[in-house]
Specification:
alpha/beta; 2 domains; 6-stranded mixed sheet; two-stranded antiparallel ribbon; 10 strands; 19% strand; binds iron/sulfur cluster
């Protein structure tokens, strides 16, 4: 793919949900374009991360760029870090030449969880990747969050998409990696490099759009299994979304503004907290119940 149209300005629109790293992708691209000698204009709308809201960034570069905002329908590339956000911004893409790149990962917004009883499926965009890719001039849908998870950190999904996007812009791989290394914290340089290269590799084998990643409601685990909530404290930014939306009121923020589950037995495994967390800080697992040894039961009796 090649997004460099025969025009002086290239327009890249990056969209997603608060906490996913939209700003990081925008800034890395803008910095790289600047280093490559282009005139660059960048604008972002963020600050919604604490509410799990939409975030987007415009990056425009070329010989001379006058405005930081991409005119409607003139995005050369639309990169979406979340599936439904990609749908929402599709009309900004150039209908004749635009390239659509999206993670199939879904983050369910709070308003889609009006019915919060166990087993309810939230209201969410029903379009499949195949349907959407049929509508655009060129499109790529991949499970970037799954790729990043396999690499060791789900939150590097934005860098997987950055890697895929980089193949449409033609700058040298080393230049991208240099900017990424300068931009991300030292402790996450290696994972981001690996995620970026994985995104670049993915495009070589991409042929059929991957199936959408749909988080199904957790089924009743039965007597031999139970639901177990994993909280990753380092990733929790204390936005309070899960605490407010948990139907069983079994979550709360501790003194450090990190979520904890003081009443794990009340958790029904509805997965709403997992769906809503914009930072992937909560995961629900089904684990086997360890049965007490028969001797112990007899002794108790
Ligand atoms: S775990 Fe809860 S409080 Fe922490 S970031 Fe996720 S949604 Fe927000
Ligand atoms: S802790 Fe999460 S999975 Fe458990 S009941 Fe609350 S929202 Fe549902």
């Amino acid at each position: 793919m090649d997004a460099r149209a025969n025009r002086n300005v290239t327009n890249v629109l990056i969209v997603g949900v608060g906490g996913q790293g939209v700003v990081m992708v925008s800034k890395v691209l803008a910095l790289l374009c600047q280093q490559q000698g282009y005139d660059v204009k960048q604008s972002e709308v963020h600050g919604m991360a604490k509410r799990g809201g939409a975030v987007f960034g415009h990056v425009r570069y070329g010989d001379v760029v006058h405005s930081p905002t991409i005119p409607a329908g003139e995005a050369d590339i639309l990169v979406s870090l979340e599936w439904a956000e990609g749908m929402r911004w599709l009309d900004q893409l150039n209908p004749d030449t635009g390239i659509f790149i999206s993670d199939t990962h879904k983050i369910v917004p709070p308003f889609a969880c009006r019915n919060r009883r166990r087993g309810q499926v939230p209201v969410y965009s029903k379009e499949t990747p195949a349907e959407i890719l049929d509508e655009v001039a060129q499109g790529y849908a991949l499970d970037a969050a799954g790729i990043a998870t396999r690499l060791g950190n789900e939150r590097a999904a934005n860098t997987v998409l950055l890697g895929l996007m980089s193949t449409a812009l033609g700058f040298p791989e080393e230049a991208w990696l240099d900017v990424i290394c300068d931009f991300v914290p030292a402790k996450s340089v290696e994972i981001n490099k690996a995620a970026f290269l994985e995104g670049r590799e993915w495009v070589k084998t991409a042929s059929v759009p991957e199936a959408p990643v749909v988080a199904d409601p957790m089924p009743d685990p039965g007597p031999e299994f139970r639901n177990e909530l994993e909280i990753i404290p380092a990733w929790c930014k204390g936005c309070d979304i899960c605490v407010r939306m948990c139907p069983e009121k079994c979550l709360e923020l501790n003194a450090d503004q990190v979520v904890v589950i003081p009443r794990p037995d009340d958790c029904t495994g509805c997965r709403i907290c997992e769906w809503l967390c914009p930072d992937f800080a909560i995961k629900l697992h089904t684990v086997a119940v360890v049965q007490p040894h028969t001797d112990e039961i007899l002794a108790e009796v």
